[in-house]
């Protein structure tokens, strides 16, 4: 059923957006009714990319440490930070060896996407079953990993996180939305879809990658579904403010 509903959603996306959104919500509700218990042996690779994120990265990493599903590995690519981000990351790596790994770049990698370094690491390490992302300035809900794994099935190989947008100090809730970048991807999907485009592409990297993931779902007869509960709290600040303004307009 999830595959049929996803195909219908995909069909209506450019024809009648309201119908597509209603189908997406229906698929989300049905998927949660049919979810299975998360396997504690499933190893989740969490990708994080940082750049001058000293104000937030501690909260982000602590939210990973508090996950109900504990079989995870966090790899952080620091994209040439000039503040104390690198020192904070190395402290966590020293404190949690084998579970947190830091790859610090000497200079900013733009226009290349630092996420690709984590995708490549994921692909060469067969121990990992699922790939997902947490940004440096966001906070994962305690059952984030557990919820995602419960929804991944033989017919649903990708789960989009339903996330909540807040102001920078998380005191004001703006809106909830299906994230384009924060996905749970089964290993086989990542192997087929590959890495991300450069960050100066005419199409935003998150959107372009999601489009490829969804086309892969159509081509290989599986579904992309949306989580029902909130997975992450995302801060609106800096560059995100322009997106928040457009959303309100």
For the structure shown, list the relevant keywords.
249 residues; alpha/beta; eight-stranded mixed sheet; globular; disordered C terminus
Q: Largest sheet, order of strands side by side?
A: 3-2-1-4-7-6-8-5
How many angstroms does the end-to-end distance come to? Answer: 36 Å
Task: Name the beta content range.
Answer: 25-35%
Number of strands: 8
Biggest sheet features: 8 strands, mixed
> What is the average per-residue confidence, as pLDDT, rounded to a whole number?
92
Number of helices: 9
**pLDDT under 50 segments (min length 5)?**
239-249
Summarize the amount of helix as a percent range: 25-40%
- Shape category: globular
Structural class: alpha/beta
Computed over alpha carbons, the radius of gyration is: 17 Å
Strand/helix succession: HHEHEHEHEEHEEHHEH
Structural overview:
With 249 residues, the chain is α/β, with parallel strands linked by helices. 39% of the residues lie in helices and 26% in strands. Strand 6 and strand 7 (173-186) form a beta hairpin. Helix 1 packs antiparallel against helix 2 (17-33) and helix 7 packs across helix 8 (205-220). It is globular and about 50 Å long. The termini are far apart.
């Amino acid at each position: 059923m999830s595959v049929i509903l996803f195909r219908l959603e995909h069909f209506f996306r450019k024809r009648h957006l309201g119908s597509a959104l209603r189908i997406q919500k229906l698929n989300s509700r049905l998927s949660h009714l049919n979810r299975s218990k998360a396997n504690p042996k499933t190893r989740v690779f969490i990708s994080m990319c940082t750049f001058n994120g000293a104000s937030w990265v501690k909260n982000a990493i602590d939210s990973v440490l508090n996950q109900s599903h504990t079989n995870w590995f966090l790899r952080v690519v620091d994209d040439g930070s000039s503040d104390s981000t690198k020192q904070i990351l190395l402290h966590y790596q020293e404190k949690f060896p084998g579970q947190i790994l830091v790859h610090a770049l000497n200079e900013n990698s733009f226009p290349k996407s630092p996420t690709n370094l984590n995708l490549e690491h994921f692909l060469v390490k067969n121990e990992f079953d699922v790939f997902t992302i947490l940004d440096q300035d966001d906070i994962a809900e305690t059952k984030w990993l557990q919820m995602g794994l419960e929804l991944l099935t033989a017919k649903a190989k990708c789960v989009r996180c339903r996330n909540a947008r807040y102001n920078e100090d998380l005191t004001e809730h703006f809106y909830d939305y299906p994230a384009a970048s924060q996905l749970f991807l089964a290993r086989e999907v990542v192997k087929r879809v590959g890495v991300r485009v450069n960050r100066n592409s005419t199409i935003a990297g998150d959107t372009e990658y999601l489009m490829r993931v969804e086309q892969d779902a159509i081509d290989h007869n599986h579904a992309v579904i949306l989580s029902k509960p909130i997975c992450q709290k995302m801060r609106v600040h800096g560059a995100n403010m322009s997106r928040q303004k457009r959303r309100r307009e």
